[in-house]
Amino acid sequence: xxxxxxxxxxxxxxxxxxxxxxxxxxxxxxxxxxxxxxxxxxxxxxxxxxxxxxxxxxxxxxxxxxxxxxxxxxxxxxxxxxxxxxxxxxxxxxxxxxxxxxxxxxxxxxxxxxxxxxxxxxxxxxxxxxxxxxxxxxxxxxxxxxxxxxxxxxxxxxxx
Length: 160
Fold this sequence. Notes:
Blueprint: E1 6-8, E2 11-13, H1 17-38, H2 42-62, H3 67-76, H4 90-111, H5 117-135, H6 139-149
Organism: Cryobacterium arcticum
Pfam families: DUF4395 (PF14340)
Protein name: DUF4395 domain-containing protein
């Protein structure tokens, strides 16, 4: 998820606090999905997970126009001091793709009648979002860096 971009050496850079802000919103939504599933509101849980899946897709494919990034840019960033450093948007964008994959599996299996898939997928995605929001540890970003080091992915400039 990209937020407040500037360009350094032809590559877009983002405020690293933006993805953490988005992870906080995501964690709250996923916690609501888990709660709804546990209290028997499986239709509501599936609907909310489907909406979060759309947000993951938006973050994975639209980059700088991510809704949580726009909220951060307009409402939060103006109240903060400038970041100490900017970061490459590719790892957080990849992390949104990982979240998308997990959420799609939950939604598809939920629609196929596997009710337990919805809270399980939401719980898996929640763990990742919570780690990012609370501890600034992005599992999807770490996976991205591992795949780059293994030369499975190339470190190409991310599109803005």
